[in-house]
Amino acid sequence: MTDVLPAGSLEGKVALVTGSSRGIGADTVRYLAEAGADVVINFRNKAPRAEKLARQLRELGRRVLVVGADLTDPASVGEMFDAVKAEFGRLDVLVLNASGGMESGMAEDYALTLNRDAQLNVLDAAAPLLGDGSRVVFVTSHQAHFIRTTPTMPEYEPVALSKRAGEDALRERIPALGEKGIGFTVVSGDMIEGTITATLLERANPGAIAERRESAGKLYNVSEFAAEVARAAVDAVPADNTRLVGDVSAFAAE
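The chain above was modelled as a monomer; its predicted structure follows.
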């Protein structure tokens, strides 16, 4: 057990984290379960990892639903939330963690489809299950959040632009969410040591991670950043709906 969130702070709540079979998503869903939440683990193609994590969280006494879904397929997303409704009847925390765009062999518009269109569709599909007091958290990077004012490395730019487009589209929903009593927080972090994105960037641009680490003084690792994402699910929503994690001195505000 860790003490990322106060014990029992999510007792009786239900939380879903997209892309939670590994990495930041897996650690986030673990922290939420440790704080008392029943959880939904979503994966695209890592079923064995998702099931292994589910067994660990059930040992904490939590109810755990494991649902495979391709977030770019609206029918698949609809089936996921049908399963959530059947199992729990509601949702209190939705963490939009899954993203991508640097994978090889994908369609040219894949980054935008996943990082903007799919995020909106997941939120819309979840909306009937979200009620007063619930929370939506969108996970992004400083390289994407500040892309309008601060250039990023060319290899990451298409992903950064698509994630910022997703953030903008989601922010347009804040007034409507607020009317239903649903809080919305964007969590933006610097490059995270040990993530798939960092590995792919390093492959495309050797030395990039070390250079950023030196410039920032410190880079968060997966579990440290996931802790910030989990806290965003329970902490008060910031006035600008934005939680910045790590050094931002190299990024120009809009």
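The mean pLDDT is 92.
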